[in-house]
UniProtKB/TrEMBL annotation, chain A:
PANTHER family: ABC TRANSPORTER ATP-BINDING PROTEIN (PTHR45772:SF3), CONSERVED COMPONENT OF ABC TRANSPORTER FOR NATURAL AMINO ACIDS-RELATED (PTHR45772)
Gene source species: Pseudomonas capeferrum
Designated name of the protein: ABC transporter ATP-binding protein
Molecular-function GO terms, alphabetical: ATP binding
Keyword ATP-binding: yes
From TrEMBL, chain B:
Pfam families reported in the protein's UniProt record: BPD_transp_2
Protein name (record): Branched-chain amino acid ABC transporter permease
PANTHER family referenced in this protein's UniProt entry, alphabetically: ABC TRANSPORTER ATP-BINDING PROTEIN, HIGH-AFFINITY BRANCHED-CHAIN AMINO ACID TRANSPORT SYSTEM PERMEASE
Location(s), subcellular: Cell inner membrane
Keywords assigned by UniProt, alphabetized: Cell membrane, Membrane, Transmembrane, Transmembrane helix
CDD domains tied to this protein: TM_PBP1_LivM_like (cd06581)
Membrane topology field: Multi-pass membrane protein
Transmembrane listed as a keyword: yes
Amino acid sequence: MSDYLLETRNLELAYGPFKAVAGVDLKVRAGTIHTVIGPNGAGKTSLFHCLTGERQATAGKILFNDRDIIRKPSHGRVALGMARSFQLTSLFQNLSVRENLRLAAQGRDGLGALNFWRSVEHKRSHWNTADQVLERLKLTARAETLAGELSHGQQRVLEVGMSICAKPTLLMLDEPTSGMGIDDIPVMTDLISDLGRDHTVLLIEHNMSIVMSISQRITVMSHGQILVEGTPEQVRNDERVRTAYLGEAA
Amino acid sequence: MSNKTALPMGLGRTPALLLLVLASLVALPLILPSATLATEILIFALAALACNLLLGYTGLLSFGQGIFFGVGAYGAALLMIHLKWGMLGALFGAAVFGAFLALLVGALAIRRTGIYFVMLTLAFSQMAYFLAYTLSGWTGGDNGLLDVPRPNIEIAGHVLVDLADPRHFYVFVAVLFLLIFAGALRVIRSPFGSTLLAIRENETRAAAIGYDTRHFKILVFMLSGAITGIAGALYAMLLHFAPLSNIDLMMSENILIMTIVGGTGSLFGSLLGAGAIVVLGDVLSELWPRWLMLLGAILILVVVFMRGGLWGGLAALGKRLLASRTADDKAPAKTKETL
């Protein structure tokens, strides 16, 4: 058993001759908040798609708990303990906030959810999980509101909250602050560092203040490859990163 | 949608909804001129309810419903004619045929989503029609399958219920309808049913939280096929005849129109939709042979102005009445205050 919860070996995602991910060896240590950053087009989202199963990697390996999951479809990765959030909010808009979370908790049952002769009330544990997550997201007061009627900031919080309902070991969050107002960002930062206490978090993020304040480990990508990996301190002081990314932002 | 609008008078709850269905089943033959017309409504309400499970609860627009209706009609008729199966056996057979055909169509069609899914069901529908037309030795082709029996319910040769009487047959179909309605209600409030809603709302997210959506879609397709098959069998028994039009694309269209007019996402809406279209057809076809044009106009009106269908319209009306009544109750108090 290695120290790494998630490990990719020479991972590659090619679109014809173009390699969006060109041989990435990413190592995510259990119990850390590990962030992937990089300028636009660096291959962060493509890497994320390979990890979630949304895209089939064209070469390499993805080891999760030392098991190669590269051929697992995205729904199959949930039962192993992987969960994700979306960059563009992707909720069940016309269902209540509580039902959104309950469905996410039920998802871990896999085909057990094909049960059509029992009432949903029967599985108390899913409701309890939904209620606990509501508390944690501070959305209890909005439990019966339709997800589509929440404010944008609250929808982003729910988006992240959906991913913890299946009690995953690895949380993969795709730009959780995307589109959020400046006032809402501290809420999200607090939430992610709170979740980092119970889960290993793999974060893709643009917002540098979040990245530097909550990550234990940072991987910088550029042109589909890993440029630098290290602690926030090391990354901040790295000359190559400055030119590739920070220089551009400054 | 059912979850979107809180319904007045607790009609969202199971016992109240079942009471409403029961009351409608008792009222139908009393207000309609014939038991046969009432039976026809229930048969199409079953087909619309099955279509609603796909369209309203899973977001699948299927033009294949006529296949399952037709296969149920032919299947039950052939079992009764050639193998001398009884009423319940024939209905069971029709359900199995319907589910099996739905498995075949569904397994291929759900590999695609959106417009491609719709086109695939349409293509299957066309194939089924011409297959039925070609296999005239079994189906009677253009002439339809004649002399379909309507067996009595018997135990060991002893007649329990004589179904030759149209009123008896109505009661039989009504009991069946109530059972299937209650069953469908249970299904949509199960983990499976709640997952269907999730798929309707956002299939990508449903997959991301762990659901293999194909299994859910195939299962609901089979369920829909089985219920539609039963409806087809009952229709053949009602007419004593299984016409080729049962398996026509037009049948799929009719079932879809009833579902949409009644209201997608509400099972009771399917009964309303079937009732409205069957009665309208019955009345208008005597007045004007081109009545189908009016049907088109009605569909346009519902889609443009009443997105929730008849059920949504009635629910909104009921809410407004309740609101105005409470407003009336408060109004005198207010004037007192101002005095």
